[in-house]
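okkk here we go again. third time trying to get the flavin-adenine dinucleotide bound version out, last two times i messed up the smiles copy paste (missing a bracket lol). double checked this time i swear
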Amino acid sequence: MVERSYDVVIVGSGAGGGTVAKELAPLARQGLRVAVLEWGAKLRESEYTGREVEMADKLYFDSGGVLTRDRTMTLAFGRAYGGSTVVYTGTSLPLPEPVLARWNVPGLEFADLRRRSEKALGENNVHLLEDDKLNDNNRLFNAACRRLGYRVQQFPINVKGCRGAGVCNLGCPNAAKQGTNRVQLPAAEAAGVEVVTNCKVEAIGERECTATVANPPYGEPSRWEPGRYRIRARAIVVAGGAVNSPALLLRSRLPVRLPALGRYLTAHPALILVGEHEKPITNYFGHPKSYYCDHFVDEGFLLETCMYFPFTTAKNLIGFGAEHAELMRRMDRMQMILVLAVDPALAENRVVLARDGEPVVDYRFTDGVLDALVASQRAAARIFFAAGCRRVHAPAGATFFIGASQAGRIDELITRAPFRLGKVSISSAHLMGGCRMGADAAESVTDAWGQVHGVPWLFVADGSLFPRCSEINPYVTIMALADRVAERVRDRIAELPA
Ligand SMILES: Cc1cc2nc3c(=O)[nH]c(=O)nc-3n(C[C@H](O)[C@H](O)[C@H](O)COP(=O)(O)OP(=O)(O)OC[C@H]3O[C@@H](n4cnc5c(N)ncnc54)[C@H](O)[C@@H]3O)c2cc1C
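finally!!
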């Protein structure tokens, strides 16, 4: 086993890890050794082809289809230089104050989080897209929500020179989206932080971790030779995401008992809904996500514009056969809405380890979440019809299509009865919790600065820190929390033994 030694090791390079790497650049400039160990590859620019199946294989764990244990939900999260920020859509919202109040983490103040969120918004070039860049799919949603009196807002997004390829979730082929692969990691590397790709951290021990480097047949080769490594570090920051950070800590021999580790996972369970227009609309080209409707957040759901790719869309429609094929053939007429449920943080929703040490996610849908997912389909159907759709497909629909002439009977036609788990395609791209912050070591894993309770050299800095879900798109909040963790590491590193 090859031995290496650093002052700080960061595991993962996504929203959390990438931010910590950049914020530790001052340490690297002072001559301290900082490394990011990232499981995924750094793709060459020419490898961003925008082709759905190919990019999903290269940029996501299990091609974006990690299943929960009972197979009722698929989880999408990235594995790459830049983590999920390579495939995120780039909508950039800070955490609302009432949500932070519900989080109730002693020592985590709104003003502090807001200041750090604004820093992330500035770094990532977050702005509202100009009117002429909005496509029909987005305009129709906005106009329909206004017509219905639903509160609707434009998403600030983080692009630079967006050419509207529409494939944000397959990695931007025009390098326009500002993920950590474009902003934070290059800045960190310029200051001397080493980013080691194709490097999976297996386990953490007392001030050290073990890792394996193996190059896949794509992307740039790792800066380390393939093989097994033992890496000593004065501080270790775990930022592998809400599934892999708890899994890594569960695999590790830690000097403390952490009863909350892996628990309280939340996911914003989501459905992709479609309506069909008489004539083609612009949907595939242009930034896919320009508006959101938070009118129903107190009823437990959010609606956002979206436009997915043929395979993902086909998988998300329920049923099969002639009607399914007919709808897919009319993709150029499709209007699309993503609905996200606000799910409660339950101890039983958690990451555990399979025999091979890899994570398995146990997730139980509450009645409240299922009711919200059904109610969200009714709201989406109203929006589609108000936008002029001739028919709508809803997973909780009594029939495959609901026609415009039936628009007055939406409540009767979209119900819980046909909405059966395992028969409908529920997915999540917002994984949160598993190493939640808090004051009480019985119910949380870290303190309000991301330090693991009772382990002064071990930190967590990613979406797993969330004590409950964020009720909005999470990445800005992850960056803000990671910024806090990095500050704590900078302040404490001198006290930690070499
Ligand atoms: C398709 C999609 C669209 C999204 N759109 C938006 C959006 O528009 N707005 C928004 O706010 N959020 C969005 N999100 C969510 C957002 O991207 C994530 O919440 C955020 O990136 C999570 O940050 P993280 O640091 O927790 O983990 P990640 O960004 O997932 O990074 C974790 C990294 O750690 C690496 N890793 C894991 N385990 C190990 C290990 N053992 N050793 C080494 N490396 C490891 C992984 O390979 C990965 O690269 C989207 C997500 C997806 C999947």
